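Quick one: co-fold with zinc ion.
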Amino acid sequence: MAVEDGGVAATSVRFSAADEGWMQRALALAALAGEQGEVPVGAVLVAADGRVLGEGSNRPIASSDPTQHAEIVALRAACAAAGNYRLPGATLYVTLEPCVMCMGAMLHARLARVVYGAADPKTGACGGVIDVPAEPSLNHQTRVEGGLLAAACGQCLREFFRARRRAARRAAAAALVGPGTPAGLPDEGAGSGG
Ligand SMILES: [Zn+2]
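Sure, here it is.
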């Protein structure tokens, strides 16, 4: 399996069928974000007894707020509903490796476990760029496990960025040639890769 697919072997047996079901839900939330033009990342926060505590989709663009990552949205919803800024025993499932901000917030919330899908070599804080949970001197340890449905989670992101690049190229080409150009611009829709 390629690093871009999550960098974790597909044969991993660390995850249960319930884990996989929650990640499927996070993937559905990621798709919702993508439909809104946000980078498609979704998160679900689940109590130890299997209750959903909160859900979130990435929405920094719509909210003009750089902190509105899927994990933060889910944490805020869950903490508000619980009337508690700590959620001990809870597990957060997220489609992409958390960034420093989200990992910090999840440590503050005293989550028991974080499960993510695709690795993020650009902003990942669980080994992708730096490894926050591996820091032994942190006062709270949250178990972090990556690679669940990594291929599907990575595919969701790749398709989004591919479509966005394609749209940007179309817009650039249209701006270059201006209005009234005859038909015949190459169609980038088929087989152009990304
Ligand atoms: Zn984040």
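If it helps, The chain has one domain: 17-175.
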